[in-house]
Amino acid sequence: MKTLTQAIVIASVGLVLPLSAQVTQTREKTETKENPDGSVTEKHTTTTKTFDATVQKRVVQYFDPYKEERYGLPPAIVTSVKVKEMPVAWRTSALNTGVVITEKERPYLVTAPPELIKVLPARDEVRYYVAGGNVVAVDKEYRVVDSVQIPSIKITVDD
Q1: Bridge partner residues of 40 (DSSP)
Q2: Domains in the chain: boundaries
């Protein structure tokens, strides 16, 4: 009986842990502005964060074994990265949420590898990419929903 109880507990934990990575946080904000002509303008903003602190830590840990590799990236990603063509900001800073990746920039997004996607929240409405030194979640309009800058990724044009 004790073995059966332990098996049930282990199975339950196995089901709960993947769900812990599926945390999303949505904030809605409405700003009201009265115009000089007396009319009122409302601006409604919805912000959704995909990466909680635990997910951010897992993403950074995923890249840690590659810090001695070229650019600090897994070999499969290095071959897809177009260092000289990608936007400079992607190499040097975090991508802010709400930024839309333009059509001109989209070819420089590298689809996140399946092993990395396993540690990310499972959401139908976002896709995950490596964008320079960042892992980003983007929606169908290529708006950055969330971003994690990876400290071990060092992309320089001199390489």
Answers
A1: 34
A2: 2-25+51-149
